[in-house]
Design a protein that fits this description.
245 residues; mainly alpha; single chain
């Protein structure tokens, strides 16, 4: 075996599985473990290199700046300080842009989860000890084969969702939040304020008072008619007095 987790010989010993089942398991596990092993090595080197550069450079730059304040400082110390400061800033930007720290932890966790799942299936322990499937049958690699394949794909899809889908949703939500103030300002500019609505429509209390004070012509009550009659009587008396004079 080239690697410790190359389990082809262990799967070949599972005689209760068919040739097609053993072949599919070996091909799928070989592909997944090789991919996670390669990516884990790459992100391990990047993670520790950038973290070491940021930690050591952050401590070295202030010390070098204190030396450069002296008048008789060598010119190469200035360029050394500038180079270390640039390396620290660049390393921090790379870690933030490519999310090296998150992917470092996610890849190693997923790879260890895959290894644990494979060994649980080979040993018929954990979830493969008879919990899944019918309780009337003794657990074997044959009747636990479907559950094992399903669990392997669940682990794979969960890692894909965490690395790509959720991150894309987070980026979309950030973009929507950034555009929300502009939309709210535009919506506020289109909708009139309560003062503008009163000016355009009129006060509801005043309109109701006018309706009460000025009844319609067809609905004049007896009191209104009597009041009009009393108003006309003084005018008639004044006219008769003028004519008599």
């Amino acid at each position: 075996m080239k690697y410790i987790d190359d389990l082809e010989s262990a799967f070949d010993a599972l005689t209760d599985l068919t040739v097609q089942q053993r072949s599919s398991i070996k091909n799928r596990i070989r592909f997944l473990l090789q991919e996670y092993r390669t990516r884990s090595c790459l992100y391990t080197a990047l993670f520790y290199t950038t973290r070491l550069m940021i930690t050591v450079g952050s401590l070295a730059v202030p010390a070098l700046l204190s030396i450069n304040m002296k008048p008789d400082t060598e010119p190469f110390l200035y360029w050394l300080t500038w180079s270390i400061s640039l390396a620290v800033t660049t390393s921090n930007g790379i870690v933030t842009l490519f999310k090296i720290d998150k992917r470092f932890f996610s890849l190693h966790a997923t790879m260890e989860r895959l290894r644990s799942e494979i060994w649980q299936y080979l040993e018929l322990s954990g979830r493969y000890s008879g919990i899944l499937g019918s309780s009337n049958h003794k657990p074997s690699h044959s009747n636990q084969y479907v559950y094992f394949c399903s669990q392997i794909e669940k682990i794979r899809m969960k890692h894909i969702d965490d690395e790509y889908v959720k991150q894309a949703n987070i980026d979309d939500s950030v973009a929507v939040k950034a555009q929300r103030p502009l939309l709210e300002d535009r919506r506020d500019a289109d909708v009139p304020t309560p003062a503008d609505q009163i000016t355009l429509i009129g006060s509801p209390k005043e309109s109701l008072k006018e309706k009460i004070d000025t009844p319609t012509r067809g609905n004049e009550g007896p009191k209104n008619k009597e009041a009009k009659g009393q108003e006309t009587e003084p005018k008639d008396e004044a006219i008769t007095l003028q004519m008599s004079e």
